[in-house]
Amino acid sequence: MTADLQGKVALVTGGTSGIGRVTAVLFAKAGAKVVVAGRREQEGHETVELIRTAGGEALFLKADVSKSSEVESLVQKTAEKFGRLDVAFNNAGIEGVLSPISRQSEEDFDRTIAINLKGVWLCLKYEIRQMLTQGGGGAIVNMTSITGLVGSAGAAAYSASKHGVIGLTKSAALENAKSKIRINAVCPGFTETPMADRILRVPAVHKYVLSCHPIGRFGHPAEIAEAVLWMCSERASFMTGQSLVLDGGFLAGQNSPS
Description:
Mean pLDDT: 92
Low-confidence stretches: none
Number of strands: 7
Strand order of the largest sheet: 3-2-1-4-5-6-7
Structural class: alpha/beta
Number of helices: 8
Helix content: 40-55%
Oligomer: single chain
């Protein structure tokens, strides 16, 4: 057991599965009281049960991060339950419908941007407000992706949303540095999650994407969670406005000959 977040209160959006769930449990093991947020109640309560089984304290709150009133309520209820907010992992996101721009519907574009980009903006807005009312101080990590750093044919809306998160992260970090609120982002390569499973369900796609990771495998959720924990801890106290890449060498090989 580690005590990186002992006595802290943490909020994890998209904590119903994958990287969000593993991070929520890790936060609790590190000593934090954890609020798990998401749209799926059963899965959210399953995450809370995992935390309690590990000896931690947690609460599930249903929330759609694309809706301002729900995000505001989420942060407010977190503070009401545990007295404050010290750490946040803005992880909620969707892959959207993968298709060329020329065939993508406006509805799907809007939905992807609303959850992946506007959702992070809303979370930042209300999380920062809460931290400022406490006198400043805190750590926030936003979920982006390697596709926030390079283009992705067939996933333009997703890639655009993740590029946008990196811009939000840098701007929010600059705005709040003097208030001692550190804001960073994590950029995973393909990681073994339900979202990745949906994208990679076609064997030929799976084989090709795997070949883009020189390390020879996809990431594990725990590997990303450990990085998020570090960024939220005092061990990363000099880090803000940065995007940490964990991609098995994916980006290092982007310009390599095939």
